[in-house]
Every structure is written in structure tokens, then in C-alpha cells.
User: What shape does this take?
Amino acid sequence: MHKILEKRQLSYDKERDQSVFYYKVEAPEIARNRKAGQFIIFQLDEDYGERIPLTIADANADEGWIAIVFQTVGATTRRFSMTFNEGDNVPVLVGPLGKPTHIEKKDGLVLCVGGGIGIAPLHPIVQANHAIGNKVVTIIGARTKELLFFEDEMRKASDELIVVTDDGSYGRKAVVTVPLTEICEKEKVSEIVSIGPAIMMKFCVAAARPFNVPITTSLNTIMIDGTGMCGCCRVKVGDKTKFVCVDGPEFNGYEVDFDNMMQRMTAFKDKEREADHKCRVGLDAGKVRA
Amino acid sequence: MSEHKTTEMLQEEAAKIWAGIEGKELTNKDRFAIPQQEMPSQDPTVRAHNMSEVALGYTETQARVEAERCIQCPTAPCKKGCPVGVPIPEFIKHIQQGDFKGAIDTIKNTNLLPAICGRVCPQEKQCQSFCTIGKMLKSPEKAVAIGRLERYVADWERAMDKITVPTPKPETGKKVAVIGSGPAGLTVAADIRREGHSVTVFEAFQKTGGVMVYGIPEFRLPKALVAKEVENLKKMGVEFKTSFLVGRTATLDQLLTEQGFDAAFIGTGAGLPKFMRIEGENLIGVFSANEYLTRSNLMKAYDRDHADTPLYDAKRVAVFGGGNVAMDGARTALRLGAEKVYCVYRRTRAEMPARIEEVAHAFEEGVDFHFLENPTKFIGDEKGRLIGVELLSYELGEPDASGRRKPVAIPGTEHVLDIDAAVIALGNDSNPLMSQTTEGLNVTKYGNIIVDENQKTSIPRVWAGGDIVLGAATVILAMGEGRRAAASMNEYLASK
Assistant: This one.
């Protein structure tokens, strides 16, 4: 059983009516074997629930829990946030999935860049790099102050933390590529890890290119099984088709065809809007506890 | 297309024959004269739009009549064609005597999943291809309908609530891990549990049954049947752990060293879909058959009112391939509301590897077959959505290594078919997860686990079988491998 031990709302996006939630979930086996960069898949119902992949945001093997962070972008994530509370069990949870991040001691610094919800999956990578003694500079960014989270956690695991917002409501008014470029100009950067919306990762790759710094990106494509069986998550990397679930989720950013990935992620957009609408209509009528 | 015969019509025909033969001593000549009983099925025009089972099963009279066609060859050639060696004449003899319980018990001594095998085995290539009656009539399709009889008695047992769950021998205290809950894994679980060893089956998905649940559609194999088989294993004391991915949730090594398992069986199946590596394959609307079928079957997306997993709406669907999975994909597309469904296969109907019955059903339901054609590229619109496929025409040349005539491209015959979804059913490669996470596990260059004649792998205490060894094959072959592995594992556990 995967009991929800703690539930917190990390942010609320008024403009899009989307929240970010943090759930600490009992999962001793996953907590024990997971490594930075790996993800889980959850379902709210064994028969009819859809399978949603989420990167593990934190874990404690001794205490036997993992933390997941998700944004309420569709019907399932909304229902998860509204109807599952502390003490409830997550009906289906499988993991850890995907290949772990390759963490090794570097000469220069490791620059970790997280945008929006991507800050969550970046967290264990920052921690792991910090733990083996790499110098870690972390940049986290969001559209506006209310959308930022994990600032303290990131500060704790980084040698330096830079916070940016698009509107300047908190930290520096900039997009993440601005400090990324500045740091690459003045310091020896051994690796960049960039996780966030596909468009942000695409721009980070473009910003890194002139400096020829290796850049790792973590992809969050649509998945069904998450074990290599269906190929739903496939994306073009270099001249090959790769499966994000078993070949990734992390790939060399220079080789990822982000345009192909962004297109593929729109495959079911109409359906999601439909389902989201249906779901919320139902919730309003039923006065489900928030 | 011949006119569809309803169950009532077929029953009436069978009853007439039965009236003429009941209680009589039949000569072989009499038996030879009995026509093969047709399987009752849903009307094609109706069934193409529902998910209910297509083949409805024999009536009791039909089963009795069909059984009388068997001449009880003393050499039982049919048995040789069965990968698990079901004593076929013996079980048919029981049906001839009206003893259905005796028939099903006879089958279950060697085949634990008769309700499933009766439905999905390629009998015309196995038992029925050796049947004397079939040989006399020059077609395995006209042989004694062994599979239909097997299904009849299995369904009878379930309907009558007469299932006997085997009682395991006294507990030995030994523990076995079975990885994967498909046909191979379930077979191993039953055979080992019977000897009194404790068995835990690990399944990565949320539901047990493997390909029988995610792959084979409801209209061909009702999921309730698979669930029933799993329930019977649970009654025997087999433990199931779903949402547990061995290799990741725990490694095989952890199971063997830390969790105290004395032996393990790997039956993880052939789970890595093949693509064609042609232009446009990553367009929106191009699916592997695994994805297309998993959405509909396992995630129940066909049940639009309840399922959260979306379907891709497509009016014109092309399925590529000629095997059972291609037939499942094409027929699923019809049921999901496609107006036009094509099946593109580069050879002809005669070379199709699918079960003959599935091909016939697909034709009856209106699948439009494009034989001797193969895709060269997929064509998309500006949003990256599939709008067509370019096909090249082929002709059959000399036989190749598989013995089938090799398709040869005819240059300059490129032509475009307008479609908005493509389903690629060209088979699976083996999933690399177990070999990647298990040190010392030897695999072929295709990733299939290498085993000896007893299904033993390169790692001590570890056996493997089914599609992860064979490449994509059939339910019954997987079960055959499972039986062999279980026998060897039981021997090992007894000697320990």
C-alpha cells in the first residue's frame, strides 16, 4: 500500500487555474532502489485510471517514502489533488522507472537549471551532484513569484542558487537562459542539466551550444506502460528513435528533436481539454472536498 | 461471403445429425461422413461495433456431434502437434461418452489454461494439422475441431461451477519468484505451487495476465476468463505482486540474495515494439500495435464513459502486418469507430501468419486488405499529424529462409493511401530491462535470453521461457516452455 504521508500545495497559478502539489508517499521498495533522475507511474483507479508518469522529487530510504510533485493540468491530476488526502492510499504506483542520471565527479561546476514544474525532478539531481562533491550552481525560474517552490531545498543542496522570474516579482527579472549564459561566459562549466517545459529546454540547449558544454535534458513525454512496451513516449534523438521510458528520461540535449517532441505531446490535447472540462463540471455539481 | 448462420440454425443442423447417430455404434466411415460443426459467432455486421466475444462457443449438441468425428487413432498423431502434449483422443473420448468433467480433467493434467488455449491457439498449425480426419479431407481446417471442443469443456466447467482447484502438496518452505504473469509465468506458478513450494508472481502492470490482458482484445479473449485463471491460482496459494517491475523495484539479484527466493523464472515476454525506421514514423497518429491495443484493452479506453485514457480518433486506419496482432489491431479499429480499416501486408493471404479464423473474421467484418504492398513513408500535415502513407507494390519471388515466397518490390509503383492513423504490427523485440539490470544473464544479439534444453539461463537458480526466449510467439508455446522450466525447477528444488 502506498499511503499518502504528507500533502502540501506548493503553488497556485491563477492565470491558468493550475496548482502544484507535493505528496510524500509511503513506498519503501521504490525509496530503497531509486536513484536521481528516475520516475514513477501512478493511477487513481486500477480499471479505468490513466497512467501518469512523475519524476521522483525526493526520497528517504530509511523512512521508506518518496515525494512526488505534480501540476494539476488534466483530469487525473486534478482528481488526485482534490480527492486524495493524507492517510489515503495511492491505488497504483510503480517504479522506479527509467535510467538513473549519470552522476560523476567533475572538474568544473555542474549547472542545474529548472523551470516551472521541472524544478521538482531537478531536485534529486542537484542533491546527488552535491553529495559526491561537485560544485553545483542551480538556477530556478518561473513566470511569477507564486509559481516558485523548493527554493529552500535547492539552496540547501547547491553551492549557489539563482532565482529568476519572467515578471521580476521575485529574484531577478530574467529567463533562465540569461544567467546560464553569464555563468558559461565566466566559469568552467562541466555539465548543464536542464529540466522544464520542452520549449525552455530547447532554449537552454541553444544557449549552451556556443560554449560547447554538455547539456542533459529530461523529457516528460506521454507514456502508457513506462517499461518500453508501447513506444508512446518515443522521440527522435540524433538520427534514432528513442523510448523516453527505458532509454531515458535523460538525453543529450544537443541530439533531442524538441520540435518533434512538442508536436507529439499535443496528440491528445483536445481530449485532455474535454476530460478536464467534464471532470470539473462533475466536481462542481458534486461539491467534492477540495 | 456466405450468409451468417445463427446459433439456432447451427443447433438445429447439429440436432438433426445427432438424432441420426445418438446411441449408435459408429464405424469410421460413419464418423468420416459427419460434417464439421461450424463455430457459432456474432453476426459480423453487429460484432464489428461491439467488444463482446465474437466466437460464441459450441452448443452441447454441437460438441457431442463434433466429438463423434474423432476416430480415436491409436497413435494419436494430434497429440504430437500440441506443444504441451494434451492427450487429445482421451479427452474427446470423454466427450463422446458425455463425460464433460472427465474431458476437462484430462486436459488439465497437461494444460492449465484450456479456456484460453481453446480460443487463441493456432490449432490448424498444431494438433489439427496432424489429425487423420483433416488429412483425409485435405485440410487442417476440416480436421476434428479440437480447439473448439477444448473450449467447450473448459467453458462448461466454469459455467457449471465445477472447477477443481488442485491441492498443493505439503509446504516445503522453498520460495520461487516468477517474473511476469503471462501464459508462461502462470503455467510455471501452477506447476511449482502444486509441489508445495511457495510462489510469488511479480507483474509490472496493475493487472495480471500479461499479453492476454494488454494485447489480445476482449472480443477474442474475454478478460473475465483470464481473471478466473488467476483467481484459481490464488486459491492454490500463489501470491501475486502487481505494479512490481523486477529489475527496477527490486533487482533479480535482490530477490535471490536478500529476499530469500530459492529460484526464479523469467517470463517477461517480448515487450519492445518494432518500428520500420521509415520517414514520418514519429508523426502523431502512428502507433505501435502494443500502444494501440494496450490503450483499448488494458486501459479500457474503448469504454469512453469510464476510462480516463484517451483514444485517438481516426476515421481511416491502416494496420501494417499479417499476424494475429495485426488482425487484433484492425478489428479493434473497427470497433473503436473507424469508417475504413486497411490491413497492409507485403505478401498474400496464403502467407499470413495469423490464425486462419482471425483472418476470416477480419474479412467478414469488412477489413480492407491490401496485399503485396509495403509502406515507404508516412506523410503528415503542418502540425505533425498523419494524413497518409506512401505504399510500394510487391510481387512474390522465390521462397526465402522461412519457406515463404519472398516479396519483391516493383520499382515505380509508389502510391498514396489517405489515412489518419497507422498501427504498426510487425512484431516485438525483446525488452532489455532484465538483461540490463541482471549481471551475467546471457542474451542473444536480439536480446532473447539464452537457455538450455531445461530452460535454464546462464545464472544459477534462474530459468526463463516464453517470448523473452522465443521472440514473439504464441500463448501455447510460452506455456510449453513454462512446463519444461517448471519440471526442471521442481527437480532442482527437490534435490536441494
